[in-house]
C-alpha cells in the first residue's frame, strides 16, 4: 500500500514540496491550507499533470484535517513571513499560534506521523511542534541544515566547475545569521576544500551561505525561497519513507550533545524509518564548537521570549 504524506500550508514552499513528492512517487500526497479552495485547486492542478509526468499517487488538496489521517510523514510549512513593522517577538507569537495549532491537529488526526518542520523561525518552531504534539523528539525535527548545506554546495560547485553532487559539506547550528558552515567537513569527493580554494574564496562562500536566504528575498521582493527549501524537505521525507538512513544536518532536540541541552539546533543525524535514529557528535574545531553553542544560546533566548508571550 502507498504511504500517505501530508504537507500543511499550500503556499510557495508547501505546494512545491507536494509537487516534488509526487514527482518522486513517494506515496499519496495530501496538501492542506487554511485558505478555502486554494489547496484543492493546486492539488487538482498537480493531479492533472500526472498523466504527463507519469506519477500515479493520489494528490488531494483539502481544508479538512480528517484527510490527514494515516499519514506517515507530515511536513509543516504553514506560517506567516515577517511583515514591515512587525517585531521579532510579534512574528514568534503569530507563528507559535499557527504551528502550535497545526501540531495539535497532527496529534489528533495523525498520531503516528513523523513531523518535519519547515516554518520559520525554524529551530524554535520545532520546539513549539514538539510541545504541542507531545511526540517523542526523534519524531519531530526541522529542515534547515540540508537547505543551508545545499546552498553552500551549489556555490562551491559553481566556483570550481564540478558536479554539485560531489560537493559534501555540513552547515550546522541555528537557521539564521548564527549558522555554522563547517569548512573542516567540506570536500569535493573527499578532497578537502582547503586544498582546492584559497581562504579568501572560502570565506566569501561561507558569508554568502549565511546570507543565502536574504539574497533570494532581496531578489524576489515579495517572498522567500521555495524551490530549494522544498527539495530539502523532500530529501528528508524520502530518507524516512525509504528508511535510507541518510546522514543529514537537521534541527533536532539536543540533550547534552555538544554541551547543548534542551533546545533544537542543527547537527548531523541519521534519518530513517525511526525518524532521527542517531545524533552524530563530530569533532569540531574550538571555534566551530563555540559558534554552535552561541547559536544554541540564541535559540534558548527565543524560547524564553516565547514563554513570556504565551
Ligand atoms: N493552517 C494551515 N495553513 C496556514 C495556516 C494555518 N493555521 N496559517 C497560514 N497558513 C498558510 C497560508 O495560507 C499560506 O498559504 O501557510 C501558507 C504559507 O505560504 P507562503 O506565504 O507562500 O509562505 P512560504 O514561502 O510557503 O513559506 C512557508 O516556510 O521556509 C519557510 O520562512 C518560510 O515560514 C515560512 C514557511
CATH H-level homologous superfamily name of the largest domain: Lactate dehydrogenase/glycoside hydrolase, family 4, C-terminal
Low-confidence runs (pLDDT<50, min 5 residues)?
none
The strand count comes to 14
Based on the structure given, which CATH architecture of the largest domain is correct? Answer: Alpha-Beta Complex
Main CATH class of the largest domain? Alpha Beta
Rounded to the nearest angstrom, the distance between the terminal CA atoms is 42 Å
Average pLDDT figure: 95
Order of helices and strands: EHEHEEHEHEHEEEEEHHHEEEH
Bound ligands, named by name, code or SMILES: adenosine-5-diphosphoribose
Number of helices: 9
The largest sheet has its strands arranged as 3-2-1-4-5-6
Work out the strand percent: 15-25%
What is the helix fraction of residues, given as a range? 40-55%
What is the rounded Rg?
19 Å
CATH topology of the largest domain: L-2-Hydroxyisocaproate Dehydrogenase, Chain A, domain 2
Q: What structural category characterises the helix and strand content? A: alpha/beta
Largest sheet: number of strands, sense, barrel closure: 6 strands, parallel
Given the C-alpha coordinates, what overall shape results?
globular
Number of domains: 2
Amino acid at each position: 500500500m502507498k504511504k500517505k504524506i501530508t504537507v500543511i500550508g499550500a503556499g510557495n514552499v508547501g505546494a512545491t514540496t507536494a509537487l516534488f513528492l509526487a514527482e518522486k512517487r513517494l506515496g499519496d500526497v495530501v496538501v492542506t491550507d487554511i485558505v478555502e479552495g486554494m489547496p484543492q485547486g493546486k492539488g487538482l492542478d498537480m493531479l492533472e499533470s500526472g498523466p504527463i509526468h507519469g506519477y500515479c499517487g493520489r494528490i488531494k488538496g483539502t481544508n479538512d484535517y480528517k484527510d490527514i489521517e494515516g499519514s506517515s510523514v507530515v511536513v509543516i510549512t504553514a506560517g506567516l513571513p515577517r511583515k514591515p513593522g512587525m517585531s521579532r517577538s510579534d512574528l514568534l507569537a503569530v507563528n507559535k499560534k499557527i504551528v502550535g495549532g497545526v501540531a495539535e491537529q497532527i496529534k489528533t488526526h495523525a498520531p503516528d506521523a513523523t513531523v518535519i518542520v519547515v516554518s520559520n523561525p525554524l529551530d524554535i518552531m520545532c520546539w513549539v511542534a514538539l510541545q504541542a504534539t507531545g511526540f517523542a523528539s526523534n519524531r519531530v525535527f526541522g529542515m534547515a541544515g540540508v537547505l543551508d548545506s545545499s546552498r553552500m554546495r551549489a556555490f562551491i560547485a559553481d566556483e570550481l566547475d564540478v558536479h554539485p553532487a560531489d560537493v559534501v559539506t555540513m552547515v550546522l547550528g541555528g537557521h539564521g545569521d548564527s549558522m555554522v558552515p563547517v569548512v573542516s567537513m567540506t570536500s569535493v569527493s573527499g578532497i578537502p576544500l582547503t586544498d582546492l580554494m584559497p581562504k579568501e574564496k572560502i570565506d566569501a562562500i561561507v558569508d554568502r551561505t549565511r546570507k543565502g536566504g536574504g539574497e533570494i528575498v532581496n531578489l524576489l521582493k515579495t517572498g522567500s525561497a521555495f524551490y530549494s527549501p522544498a527539495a530539502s524537505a523532500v530529501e528528508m521525507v524520502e530518507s524516512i519513507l525509504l528508511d535510507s538512513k541518510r546522514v543529514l544536518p537537521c534541527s533536532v532536540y539536543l540533550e547534552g550533545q555538544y554541551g547543548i541541552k534542551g533546545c533544537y539546533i542543527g547537527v548531523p543525524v541519521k534519518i530513517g524509518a525511526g525518524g532521527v535514529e542517531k545524533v552524530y557528535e563530530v569533532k569540531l574545531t574550538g571555534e566551530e564548537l563555540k559558534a554552535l553553542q552561541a547559536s544554541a544560546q540564541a535559540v534558548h533566548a527565543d524560547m524564553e521570549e516565547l514563554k513570556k508571550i504565551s
